Amino acid sequence: MTKSRSPFNKGWTKSSPKKGEQRARMLKKCGDSCFLMPNHRSPGKSKFPICAHNSCKKDCKGILSGLVRAQQWKHKHPSYAKAAKKAKSLYTKCQRKSRKSRKSRKSRKSRKSRKSRKSRKSRKSRKSRKSRKSRKSRKSRKRAKYVAKKKPGGHFKAKKHSQQPG
Label partner for 73 (CA 20 to 30 A): which of 59, 109, 111, 132? Predict the structure, then answer.
């Protein structure tokens, strides 16, 4: 049974450049920065792509995937150890960058949410007051009708009995 992928690099297989033509095109267009182990002799065999295909931007998912794979194979292929080291430094940079962007997003969201929470609370309280009153009155009306029908000597039947001759 294989271990499930971590959520951090999930989806990388779809966005990664495939071996052969895509990788060769990427090496030509973006250069060495998109691979942990670029191969100029046969560009299609460049190893550990970092950038998503059709873009030259480094992707954190690709860096993490390259790091994991390079660490797995560094004992059999000593050249992979260098790639793992490079990936590790790139991944720490990537984490810092994403942490900063998350913090800025949170601060923006919190400002917006504070304002909206206040307005939502006031709206909710107004709505709930009205709805509670109307619900209570509806319930009491229904209960009164039900009780009147159920009682054997209720006001509906009492009038009918009094009209009979005695």
Answer: 59
Please tell me the predicted confidence (pLDDT) of residue 105: 67
Strands (E), the chain: 35-37, 47-49
Q: Give a yes or no: residue 41 inside a domain.
A: yes
Say if 5 falls within a structural domain: no
The Cα–Cα gap between 126 and 65 comes to 53
Q: How far apart are CA 97 and CA 47, in angstroms?
A: 25
Could you tell me the pTM of the whole model? 0.55
Q: Does 140 lie in the same domain as 81?
A: no
Kind and range of the H or E element at 49?
strand 47-49
Give the CB-side neighbour count of residue 147, counting CA atoms within 13 A: 6
